[in-house]
């Protein structure tokens, strides 16, 4: 009896172990993880990847080392091609924006969205219309539109790269306000910011973080934000104005609704389901860290984190929207 | 003078045991990174960045910049010893450094390079100290047209100053432009010359090309010469080092000219690589022994090294004041700044003076420490050259291959480096200069972007290149530099004499 009950106890223990084992052995990284940023050093996506890295190590959320590498070639396409060739590898994560699904719309590339596994959209960067008030003489949206109508094509709008977010937004402004602007592509938004500050071009459509320092220095002024509601931060930044003081473009007279840019994280297609679940949980925690919150506040970002089905639905909807813009602009690649 | 007071405050921040130890560690790490071709300062700094997340920003930037100085110094070492540039900016150092080392004067070459580099760096820091406020405003005056004018001057000085046939220089440069055009085009967003080949979508890395053209190309040449590269009996005495350091003031004109070119190219968007090339080309024209450049002339080492380092230091200023990095490494550091919660931009100087001036003070100290440390390594490096070719040869091959791979962790790059090695050999056999090719690869796509942006800004009118005094002067200077050989030829044909006849009258004056 005693022997039997012992046996039974042993069996039960073994059974419990057997059941518990998979739960306890849920996927965990065992070697260094590579973060691949689809932008050069100092660019928005690079900073994003490194802030996540910093949040993970400062918050002790991950003990394995992280290596951030930059694959900026082909406007970042290099990163996603690399993802395709690393199919199933759970030790590589890819950082980008909407570029992951927008790049293949216009360019013949060897990867498609099907080669990527969406992990998370960590936060959203709003877009703002900035001008140099001194050299352009423009103080508000009304003045901007009036000036553009007076002399079509003379307002030069700078932005990062050709097509993609900045040029798309410029064409949306043109259409909704019925004006004619000239878009000039630069390597990065910060370059476009300095060109506006120096008075070489009149405007840009930068994210808040790319132009905020020039705003403080008085060489750039925000005219309106491309969101449905105003930004929430009421901390005074310059001239007694806060992010919250900037009108939405809709109220100011440019009927472009929301045009935010997601900061996205991807894995290679075919990674183990529990690895994906592990990263999803991990990045949800990252979004709650002080480090990451500080990053969002500094950039006046919209703190909205999407994962799983919610993120997938967003991608579908965002991709359709971009396909529409690209089609209208005649940028879609010709079918093979 | 308020800048001086701020600088003293900066020294108070930088001069702590903790920070000096950080500087020494940074410089040593940088030396390692710089000596290994391919790894380079940008990669090294980017690898070190995660370590700085938990440090305070001042210590962090001191660590990163010290590493940068170390890497800049280290990059010249392999250029001189093996003809493999460890850094893009030390390509021009190979032109005279390597021949000098092969003549058994490796110690002299290394010492010349390091001490003139130190002078260049300190000049750069002094310029930053004195002109920080003014420079930031000046850099704002650079639009696309001005950017293009800076690049145009660099190209023009190369064609106009080349020793060989201008035709060959031009051919080499055009091939460089073609290579730099590979990859995605900034203005249209389209891929060019990639033939739908994934490995080419990011373009060809300049470092891979250089490793092949110089390192492997030279290796093939040496093999053809029946392995004549016997161990060079380099003199290895400390006296040789001191003697060489004392020799540097003799080249004061070259040092001064190169430092000025360096500061100019660092503040404007040219960057250290372009600065070293331009300084070398102009040095060849104006130095007393300019016609002997390329054969192991001391001034051929002093000119690019001084310019490289003064540009490297000055390039940090636009990064801090405008958020526009003047070099690849500055771009990585700028990323660091943003993660530490500092925003580079015009307000940084007023909101965080402790950070900015602590950094500037550390640039003085860091460079002095770097010079002392690298000079101490000279005998060790020179000793390597005593090994016979059958040992050094395979070693160089391996270093080149690893270097080509480390640039971006692409296996394809190894094949590319081999291909460039053969190209380098052919170039040398046919007596085509490599330098214009390299220069065009570094600046080609930037110059193209700037040109097209300028054209978009002016709605297609070329008058934008003459639209203000700044850009007009630069373009005019560029054109003069471009046609200088032609002008001097015409002048001498007209019997006035420009260069050849300039010397005899002088000696006559002397005798009278």
From TrEMBL, chain A:
<dbReference type="InterPro" id="IPR005064">
    <property type="entry name" value="BUG"/>
</dbReference>
<keyword id="KW-0732">Signal</keyword>
<protein>
    <submittedName>
        <fullName>Tripartite tricarboxylate transporter substrate binding protein</fullName>
    </submittedName>
</protein>
<dbReference type="Pfam" id="PF03401">
    <property type="entry name" value="TctC"/>
</dbReference>
<feature type="signal peptide">
    <location>
        <begin position="1"/>
        <end position="20"/>
    </location>
</feature>
<comment type="similarity">
    <text>Belongs to the UPF0065 (bug) family.</text>
</comment>
<dbReference type="InterPro" id="IPR042100">
    <property type="entry name" value="Bug_dom1"/>
</dbReference>
TrEMBL record, chain B:
<keyword id="KW-1133">Transmembrane helix</keyword>
<feature type="transmembrane region" description="Helical">
    <location>
        <begin position="109"/>
        <end position="131"/>
    </location>
</feature>
<feature type="transmembrane region" description="Helical">
    <location>
        <begin position="396"/>
        <end position="427"/>
    </location>
</feature>
<feature type="transmembrane region" description="Helical">
    <location>
        <begin position="465"/>
        <end position="491"/>
    </location>
</feature>
<dbReference type="Pfam" id="PF01970">
    <property type="entry name" value="TctA"/>
</dbReference>
<feature type="transmembrane region" description="Helical">
    <location>
        <begin position="355"/>
        <end position="384"/>
    </location>
</feature>
<keyword id="KW-0812">Transmembrane</keyword>
<protein>
    <submittedName>
        <fullName>Tripartite tricarboxylate transporter permease</fullName>
    </submittedName>
</protein>
<feature type="transmembrane region" description="Helical">
    <location>
        <begin position="20"/>
        <end position="40"/>
    </location>
</feature>
<feature type="transmembrane region" description="Helical">
    <location>
        <begin position="47"/>
        <end position="69"/>
    </location>
</feature>
<dbReference type="InterPro" id="IPR002823">
    <property type="entry name" value="DUF112_TM"/>
</dbReference>
<feature type="transmembrane region" description="Helical">
    <location>
        <begin position="259"/>
        <end position="282"/>
    </location>
</feature>
<feature type="domain" description="DUF112">
    <location>
        <begin position="20"/>
        <end position="439"/>
    </location>
</feature>
<feature type="transmembrane region" description="Helical">
    <location>
        <begin position="138"/>
        <end position="161"/>
    </location>
</feature>
<feature type="transmembrane region" description="Helical">
    <location>
        <begin position="167"/>
        <end position="187"/>
    </location>
</feature>
<keyword id="KW-0472">Membrane</keyword>
<feature type="transmembrane region" description="Helical">
    <location>
        <begin position="199"/>
        <end position="221"/>
    </location>
</feature>
<feature type="transmembrane region" description="Helical">
    <location>
        <begin position="319"/>
        <end position="343"/>
    </location>
</feature>
